[in-house]
Design goal:
This protein is an alpha+beta fold. The chain contains six helices and eight strands, in the order βααβααββαββββα. The strands form three sheets. It has a four-stranded antiparallel sheet. A two-stranded antiparallel sheet has the order 1-2. Strands 3-4 form a two-stranded antiparallel sheet. The chain is globular, with a radius of gyration of 15 Å.
Amino acid sequence: MEASRSAGGCKERYFLLKLGVEMKDETIGRIGDYLKTFDINVIPNDQGDVDFIEKSLHWNIDPDYKQFILMFGGCYIGLPVYGVRNCSLLEDVSVVELTNEFKIDCDSIADGCCVISMDGGGNPIFFNLSGSISIYDHNLGREDGFAKNFEDMILSAIG
């Protein structure tokens, strides 16, 4: 397991882990700046963690989310974003465990969906079957759109 490190130490990793995916360099920089401002130590996930998510959830991982967890792991960026391994600010639960727990209670979270976060009320925020981000409101008993994609969710969270 890779040791945690300050987000400020991840600056060098930005270009090494770009991996040809979609998230803009500006967004990656803003994430790093946010984490550095609050001195949040990150625990980057590795390809084995990505493979575990895909195999366990029968889900082709979103490229932006993949890039995020490879660079930052699960961490808090205005809202919690879970990976397989998370920073100390988050619960010790993986996206696989989180998704499987919510599948029991939420009809909207089907196979092929992945719960990556929760709001302050404990409502799951997840990749839906179309690849956009939804939230399931327990009080209203329904799924609502949350963001058109992972990068937009992140940008909204960090302001």
